[in-house]
């Protein structure tokens, strides 16, 4: 039996087979709400105080810095304007193309969460198992004080890294970046509740155009890009992404990437064309989004979901196939679009990678792969890269 231990107020003594530890209890829900309200009022445009004024201020009357801040870098009409540009360009192209980011309204996000639970869809499940195994090793290799995550969403898998870095005692800041303020606020509320010593510096931005880490985020920094989102970018887009990333990396920083690997064609096709039809509904959701936001008259039932393996490009592709010749009107754009019978409209690419090729393209952009982890079946990889010397 170990020695007696005094437990501070608002704490819990947790006993497990691994030993005992004191865990601070989260603040009540109304306290979290107050933190979020204070944070969303924070703006980077606030006038700076001089160093002498700060030094002479009465500490007893100073307002503590909020643990959650939200930096809005997008204009109010950014998403609407982007959707308009993408729909005009994509429906006027040959072949027609719609970017996959427009799947993800509230309904689309819910459908994707359902997809991650399907037996056929392995990437999320396998990546989480890898991260659970290697998170302590990543924490030891990086000693990160800040975790910066572009396209963070709910930040679910990232908690494995936050736990490992917290246990190591280096983590001070989590800096998520996403186009959705509400997703950032919800994730931020949960994180400051569950990690009492953590500061969350959220940024509303589009990672395809802005990968700047918050200027006051402490170093060293770990930039994470999980979920094989990198596969949604073609080679030119990936090069632009790596170049933006490399420009913002300091010598002590590191980049953690999740990437889906080339494998048996049937395994890949089943992952993007499940037996329950959830992926088909997810694919068609882009039509619902355009109907709602731009006054289009797409009939989703007049399109069929198609998942194809592109052998030459080594990527999965999702398409919508017009079941018959039809014309679609997009009223907000004063646009009329003709579809031929069986015409395909591409809605997503998901590139799959080989170790040599992915390592080479990172090296070409000034990033050296130091660690490469995978599962036993080598379906998915997580790799850690650092700036080239």
UniProtKB/TrEMBL annotation:
InterPro entries: EgtD (IPR035094), EgtD_Methyltrsf_superfamily (IPR051128), MeTrfase_dom (IPR019257), SAM-dependent_MTases_sf (IPR029063). GO terms for biological process: methylation. Its EC number is 2.1.1.44. Residues 84-385 form the Histidine-specific methyltransferase SAM-dependent domain. SUPFAM superfamilies: S-adenosyl-L-methionine-dependent methyltransferases (SSF53335). Gene3D superfamilies: Vaccinia Virus protein VP39. It is an enzyme of class 2 (transferase). GO terms for molecular function: L-histidine N(alpha)-methyltransferase activity. Residues 40-67 are annotated as: Disordered. The keyword Transferase applies. Signal peptide: none annotated. Pfam families: Methyltransf_33 (PF10017). Keywords: Methyltransferase, Transferase. PANTHER family: ERGOTHIONEINE BIOSYNTHESIS PROTEIN 1. This is L-histidine N(Alpha)-methyltransferase. It comes from Actinospica durhamensis.
């Amino acid at each position: 039996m170990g020695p007696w231990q005094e437990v501070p107020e608002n704490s819990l003594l947790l006993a497990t087979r691994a030993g005992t530890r004191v865990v601070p209890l989260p603040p009540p829900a109304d306290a979290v709400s107050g933190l979020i309200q204070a944070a969303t009022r924070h703006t980077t445009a606030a006038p700076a105080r001089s160093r002498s004024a700060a030094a002479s201020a009465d500490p007893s009357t100073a307002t503590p810095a909020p643990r959650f801040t939200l930096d809005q870098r997008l204009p109010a009409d950014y998403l609407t304007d982007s959707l308009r540009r993408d729909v005009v360009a994509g429906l006027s192209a040959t072949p027609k193309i719609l970017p996959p980011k427009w799947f993800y309204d509230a309904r689309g996000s819910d459908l994707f969460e359902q997809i991650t639970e399907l037996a056929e869809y392995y990437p999320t499940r396998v990546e989480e198992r890898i991260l659970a195994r290697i998170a302590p090793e990543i924490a030891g290799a990086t000693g990160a004080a800040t975790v910066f995550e572009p396209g963070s969403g709910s930040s679910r898998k990232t908690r494995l890294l936050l736990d490992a870095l917290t246990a190591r005692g280096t983590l001070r800041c989590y800096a998520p970046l996403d186009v959705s303020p509400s997703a950032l606020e919800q994730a931020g509320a949960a994180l400051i509740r569950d990690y009492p010593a953590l500061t969350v510096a959220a940024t509303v931005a589009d990672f395809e155009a802005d990968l700047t880490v918050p200027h006051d985020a402490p170093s060293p920094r770990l930039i994470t890009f999980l979920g094989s989102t990198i596969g949604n970018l073609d080679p030119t887009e990936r090069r632009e992404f790596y170049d933006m990333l490399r420009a913002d990396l300091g010598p002590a920083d590191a980049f953690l990437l999740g990437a889906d690997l080339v494998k048996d064609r049937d395994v890949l096709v089943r992952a993007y064309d499940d037996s329950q039809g959830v992926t088909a509904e997810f694919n068609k959701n882009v039509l619902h989004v355009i109907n709602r936001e731009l006054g289009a008259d797409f009939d989703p039932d007049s399109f069929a979901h198609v998942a194809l393996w592109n052998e030459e490009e080594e990527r999965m592709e999702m398409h919508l196939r017009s079941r018959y010749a039809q014309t679609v009107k997009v009223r907000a754009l004063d646009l009329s679009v003709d579809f031929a019978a069986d015409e395909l409209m591409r809605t997503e690419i998901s590139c799959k990678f080989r170790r040599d090729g992915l390592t080479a393209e990172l090296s070409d952009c000034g990033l050296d792969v130091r660690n490469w982890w995978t599962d036993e079946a080598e379906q998915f990889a997580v790799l850690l890269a650092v700036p080239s010397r």
